[in-house]
Amino acid sequence: MRSADRTLAALDFLVDAAPLAVRVTDVAQHLELSMATASRLLAALVERGYASRTSERRFTVGPRSVLLAGKWIATLRTAAAGPMARVVAATGESVMLAQQLGGVVVPIAWQPPRHHADQMAEKLSGLGPWFPLWATATGRAMLGKLPSAHRAKLLPEKCPRLTDRTVAGSAELRQLIRDGERTGLHIENGEVDPDLWCCAVALERGTMGGVLAMAVISSSEPDPVQRPRILNALRRE
Asked: Are 22 and 13 in contact (CB under 8 A)?
């Protein structure tokens, strides 16, 4: 029970500090623990997805606990509401705001067009609460904004194939990231789900050490008229 209390107290500390990331020293001092004990607690939370380790060797909420940080999430959603609504109006497609936490993409907010809101909500919920960085346009947009040394640590040599279109080789992934950085937009087509097309743009480095990104998600590859409409809407925002 004592160990469980300490672990939950460490999680509470990360939630209260968000969006700031904290050091092991901060957790140790706050909970009056040794550095070794605080490090073990944080490692356990990271392993189970309740905490994330940043590139600066700090810790913040993880993909399983991010929604507990209500004040920070509300601030992000408020700031992004206008740009997201404009992209939905311009494209008629679903728009997602996401945050990088460690090695995964965590959706923070999304706005679907009214005509297929339920369909898209069901599709996205079926994919899970987070996505791998390397397989998604959103993740690759985030990776492109990270220091090269940190990016290399997050790109495995061989990635599992989620669909028959998944780009699994590290050299191919690096080239896709470079291409996206050159154009400012990153695109995927059926790499996570065979029915989804996505275009994403990185927004900025966050205070948590990760990157925010906005993405347009479509239930099929856009036609030659719709595609430039999507690209231009994201570039404007």
From this structure: yes
Rounded alpha-carbon distances, angstroms, from residue 13 to 45, 61, 133: 12, 9, 26
The model carries a pTM of: 0.81
Query: What residue type is 40 in one-letter code?
Result: R
Contacts of 129 (CB under 8 A, 6+ apart): 63, 64, 106, 107
User: Tokens 């999430």, residue?
Assistant: 73
For 200, other C-beta atoms within 10 Å of its C-beta total 26
Looking up tokens 């550095």 gives: 35
- Say how many Å lie between the first and final Cα of the chain, rounded: 49
Tens-level pLDDT at each residue, the chain (237 residues) = 678 889 889 999 998 888 888 999 999 999 999 999 999 999 999 999 899 888 778 898 988 888 888 888 898 899 899 999 999 999 999 999 998 887 888 888 888 877 666 776 676 666 667 888 888 899 999 999 888 888 888 887 777 888 888 887 888 888 999 999 999 899 999 988 888 899 999 986 554 456 889 999 998 899 999 999 999 999 998
| Alpha helices (H) along 48-92 | 70-91
